[in-house]
């Protein structure tokens, strides 16, 4: 029993190293390819200021690193545009009601607490995007860990469970797991 627990702990540490390394690799590849190729999805540029006066009442001071902030804002694509917009402005448009509030709520909390000191450097919208990236990458590491734990229970084989979780870390959908995008495929069911 003791040897099994030691193996489980060693496998967990190994998996966590792979999960974190895979996130760094995927983010590096995203940055690399976005610098070489123009994006297919141009939804990042369709993000006007908030409609309500309470969210955009006073003009923000200029940011110190506008190019970094602009690069982060342009990297928010697909449904991430809606999640960032909901975090910033709330539910303004009818189409935004298709997106559940957990991710925007977490993004708002992170951007107003942990990443608040970065607002003067890169701007509030960029901080919202950065918060979304960090939240999703942390959630991915937890997802890999719990996939491994569930696989050990179901398959009763720690080595196979470890291989399955490592394959999950390097699967082709990793770009979505490292973007401002929900990990739950049913969190934004559209009719």
From TrEMBL:
Q: Which domain of life is it from?
A: Eukaryota
- Cite the EC number: 2.4.1.-
Q: Where in the cell is it found?
A: Endoplasmic reticulum membrane
So where does this one cross the membrane? 15-33, 122-148, 160-181
Topology in the membrane? Multi-pass membrane protein
A GO molecular function for this record?
alpha-1,6-mannosyltransferase activity
Give the enzyme class. transferase
What biological-process GO terms show up in the record?
Answer: GPI anchor biosynthetic process
> What are the record's GO terms for cellular component?
endoplasmic reticulum membrane; mannosyltransferase complex
Q: What does this protein do?
A: Mannosyltransferase involved in glycosylphosphatidylinositol-anchor biosynthesis.
Return the protein name. Answer: GPI mannosyltransferase 2
Similarity section = Belongs to the PIGV family.
Per the record, the pathway is:
Glycolipid biosynthesis; glycosylphosphatidylinositol-anchor biosynthesis
Sorted keywords for this record are: Endoplasmic reticulum, Glycosyltransferase, GPI-anchor biosynthesis, Membrane, Transferase, Transmembrane, Transmembrane helix
Q: Name one Pfam family in it.
A: Mannosyl_trans2
Which species expresses this protein natively?
Salvia splendens (Scarlet sage)
Major location, coarse class? endoplasmic reticulum
Q: Which PANTHER family match?
A: GPI MANNOSYLTRANSFERASE 2
Would the keyword Transit peptide be found if you checked this record's keyword annotation? no
**Keyword Glycosyltransferase among record annotations:** yes
InterPro entries with a match to the protein in the record: PIG-V/Gpi18 (IPR007315)
């Amino acid at each position: 029993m003791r040897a099994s627990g030691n193996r489980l702990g060693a496998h967990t540490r190994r998996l966590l190293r792979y999960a974190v390394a895979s996130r760094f690799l995927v983010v590096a590849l995203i940055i690399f390819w976005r610098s070489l190729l123009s994006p297919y999805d141009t939804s990042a540029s369709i993000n006007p200021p908030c409609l309500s006066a309470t969210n955009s009442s006073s003009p923000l001071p200029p940011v110190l690193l506008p190019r970094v902030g602009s690069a982060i804002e342009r990297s928010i694509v697909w449904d991430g545009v809606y999640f960032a917009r909901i975090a910033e402005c709330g539910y303004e448009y009818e189409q935004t009601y298709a997106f559940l509030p957990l991710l925007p709520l977490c993004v708002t909390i992170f951007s107003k607490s942990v990443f608040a000191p970065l607002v003067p450097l890169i701007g509030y919208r960029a901080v919202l995007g950065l918060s979304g990236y960090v939240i999703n990458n942390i959630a991915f590491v937890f997802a890999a860990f719990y996939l491994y734990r569930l696989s050990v229970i179901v398959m009763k084989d720690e080595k196979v469970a470890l291989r399955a979780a490592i394959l999950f870390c390097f699967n082709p959908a990793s770009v979505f797991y490292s973007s401002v995008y929900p990990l739950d495929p049913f969190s934004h069911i559209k009719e």
